[in-house]
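Journal club side-thread
Mid-discussion, someone asked how the predicted structure for our own chain would compare to the paper's figures. Pasting it here so we can look after the session.
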Amino acid sequence: MPSPITAHITSLFTQSPFNWQQCLSDIIAAFDCTTGTIHILDAETNLLKLQAQQGLPNFLLPKMTEIPIGKGMAGIAAQRLKPVEMCNLQTDDSGVARPAAKETKVEGSIAVPMLLDGELYGTLGIAKPVPYNFTEEQVSDLMEIGAEMSRFIRSHSLQP
């Protein structure tokens, strides 16, 4: 049985027309975050293309519009097909977060791949302005939400 958060987000996919921005806003609110992105994989270019964002500074948008697989948190989550999490992006020195990511002023952050039947459809990222480790249940909910987004993308043959 899906969690209440997952059930709510899943219900959004029945709305016509579907609103990616509203979906992201609801996810951000449900996880008590302030910032987030949804990127959809463009199969032709193999780039993650920004579909919706909230809380990003305008000067960062050009760097976030298209993300190569393997670059930054979203790109690495897409490459590994696994969530990538940082308790505090501001103090991270692993090299996973790109230098410009620190300009978001967020700390606790996670990027999850949007997967369905093992196939990548994009990434979902959310973040808090404080250090934070997402719980296993939260990560599981985010992965379920990503699967529902993937199902929607596949059923609507969406390309960004």
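Post-session note: The domain at 4-156 is CATH 3.30.450.40 (Beta-Lactamase).
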